[in-house]
Amino acid sequence: MTGNTRGAQASASAPAGVSSPAERVQWLREELDRHSYQYYVLDAPTIPDAEYDALFGELQALETEHPELLTDDSPTQRVGGAPLAAFDAVRHRVPMLSLNNGFEDEDVINFDRRCAQGLGRAAPVPAAETPQDLFSQAEQIDSAVEYACELKFDGLAMSLRYENGKLVQAATRGDGETGEDVTANVRTIKAIPLKLRGDAPEVLEVRGEVFMYREDFDRLNARQAEAGEKTFVNPRNAAAGSLRQLDPRITAKRPLSFFAYGIGELRGVDRPVTHSVMLDGFARLGLPVCTERRVVKGAPGLLAFYREIGERRAQLPYDIDGVVYKVNALAEQEQLGFVSRAPRFALAHKFPAQEMTTIVEDIEVQVGRTGAITPVARLAPVFVGGVTVTNATLHNEDEVRRKDVHIGDTVIVRRAGDVIPEVVAVVAERRPDDARAFVMPTECPVCGSHIEKLEGEAIARCTGGLICAAQRKQALLHFAQRRAMDIEGLGDKLVEQLVDQGIVRTPADLYKLGVMKLSALDRMAEKSAANIVAAIDGSRTPALNRFIFALGIRHVGESTAKDLAKHFGRLQAVMDADEAALLEVNDVGPVVAQSIANFFAEEHNRQVIEDLLASGVTPSESEPAARAPAPFAGKTFVLTGTLPTLSREAAKEMLEAAGAKVAGSVSKNTDYVVAGAEAGSKLEKAQALGVAVIDEDGMLALLREVGAG
Hints:
Blueprint: H1 5-11, H2 21-41, H3 49-65, E1 89-91, E2 101-102, H4 105-118, H5 131-136, E3 146-153, E4 156-163, E5 166-172, E6 178-180, H6 183-186, E7 203-211, H7 214-226, H8 235-243, H9 248-252, E8 257-267, H10 275-284, E9 294-297, H11 298-312, E10 320-327, H12 330-336, E11 338-339, E12 342-343, E13 346-350, E14 354-367, E15 373-384, E16 387-393, H13 397-403, E17 406-407, E18 410-415, E19 422-426, E20 436-437, E21 451-452, E22 461-462, H14 469-480, H15 492-500, H16 515-519, H17 526-537, H18 544-550, H19 558-568, H20 571-576, H21 579-582, H22 590-601, H23 603-614, E23 636-640, H24 648-657, E24 661-663, E25 672-675, H25 681-689, E26 692-694, H26 696-705
Parallel strand pairs: 2-13, 23-24, 23-25, 25-26
Antiparallel strand pairs: 1-6, 3-9, 3-10, 4-5, 4-7, 7-8, 10-13, 11-12, 14-15, 14-18, 15-16, 17-20, 18-19, 21-22
Helix pairs in contact: 1-3, 2-3, 4-11, 14-15, 18-19
């Protein structure tokens, strides 16, 4: 799932009454994080790609328009989701980045124009305003940019590391920086050579896609059904599920295939001149490469390839959801470089979503891991996008009203390669006389807590964050994460067992765990249990800001938690503060103040905090900070590159302690850019805008001048 602004205009409507871009950005980030977790980690997506693309594109647009809102932990600054705890982590030596998406012909024309301009060439057909104009001027493409065109497979991205021709490691993409070690499983895939043919490089990291042919998928499902076992929804889920088996013998029974399409680390030989030459080289080494590829020139060639593949898509033996364009010359790829999380030299051109009509038999609500109350349409079964679907997300109450969806309506359902589709529109003329309007419940169907909808927000939420069973696993994972209580070893699989077996209901229950109880769990040795108990004990004296952040209060991230701790000094003062007092805290606006006040107004939240304190958890407290303005108040810094002695986080903390704001991107409002080794596009932009550029010594000198160093 990757982003595109055009999609945002199509399907990610803004919640009614949002009072600021910051609130919309916060909402988008939380939604994207939720959906990324479902898609990349759990292999159980809850929205179509098209809807994710829309949300992602809108977030990109807002962060571009308001660069002061960009943060390092934004979904736009990373790819995908976290590795599964069941496998060892693998740090990718060369990040596995995602691609920006295109949906319309104009997206491809603009991509081609940007590449041409970035390479210092005139756009091939600068006067073209429409695809028709573009093709009418096709004779002008002799000087156009050359591209390699491939298929966009619907599988699981994989990195294969060969050393001296032998396969030594296989890893999933994970979050782009760190993936899952699935070497034992990948070795069972017959399409992947364990040893390369001919003279192989000293090190070759091959990037590609693990997938399943439709015919193999059908046979697998038939065997599963015959054996009375779970069948798979689509080939992608079957491939992902097969690779994530803890027992490689199960993977070996699954008919997985692989196509190579990219390169990571390479040592011992020169890089190929072009992408197409690289793929030819892969084939000579014995790596499977898809034959449905072509080298073309300019936007006319790109669009012609897209249309040809679109016409043949149904006849292909595997699932694809688009095509991929890459500038063919690797030197030109390097010249164009990257923007944020994606290369400038490549584009994924996705096929349109598929649509069918069906009947809404009921509308129910689901409680998400963050407490979001999502209306879900229960549908008469309909075959769309290659699978039979029976439900579709309606996103929120405002969306139900906007689309005027009633129980009993005939609706148009769209599915874009995902499991759960979306309701696009109602076929109003088919509404029956007994159709019923949807009524949003006032109490959580899981825990009975009050459902609230803050002013300016579209999503209603259960207020039982610390007690609601639907939110329990996520609340515990958030509580234990490194930036909160930092309980090492308390990962997804362990939390899942603790919650499913009823051992832990609230964060306070963690501090009652003993070695015997933990060691009785599946895959938990006594030594591991002892380490986790020690980690829990070691978390009993957190910094106040970490404890506040760990509570999972809506709209309270790390920065706001630090501001609250610094302003009030004591936990009880934070809990007792009314909205007026909260508004005095740096960067706390009305929506955040209301969210904090509402959280501590809930008796069950206060009870969990009391239980935590009774269990020996003692947040460090201090006197409230003096109200005098910090020396760098109002100043914005941007960090880029590798500093000689300070980590990025340490430098950020020093600047924030002096009152500065540390932004993720450079704009005309930036006061200083602190540049280290291998500083990239941020440094270039600062120089272009005339922003002051200093190094680590310069930053420390500034801090000393104001008495903060």
